[in-house]
Fold this protein.
Amino acid sequence: MSTLQNVTYDEITIGQTASYSKTLSEDDLVMFAAVSGDVNPVHLDAEFAASTMFQERIGHGAWTGSVISAALALELPGPGTIYLGQSLSFRAPVKIGDTVTVELEVTAKNDAKKFVTLNTTAINQHGKTVAKGSAEVMAPTEKLVLPKPVLPAITIG
């Protein structure tokens, strides 16, 4: 069984890094549209998307933001993290089949509030930055090692 383990506030150091990767699949794109309600045709309609500057369907920017959220929740600081805020600029589209790797780097700590600031950079499999920004989180103070939940199978139809 896989486990999830956090890094507590006291264990976090300035300059500490972590990464997390996810590939955008057709199912991810459709499920994200369904869950968010964002049915912009640039995401769902190949004919429409072909007429845009992207020339094909692209993933939602918020999907990339959600991969950053996953990196914070699963890697650094990990389980027990409270996501407080994110500044984010999108630099390039994410296309179906692209693998986005989020690189996190701790840049500041606030001892009074147990807040941590991290640079967040999302890069595709070609080394191109697709999004960049910074996140502020409340880091956990207690060490956690938990079983990784198994998600149910989802069918799109």
Residues 61-74 form the longest helix (14 residues). The chain has a mean pLDDT of 97. The helical segments are 26-36, 41-44, 46-50, 61-74. The two ends are 31 Å apart (CA to CA).
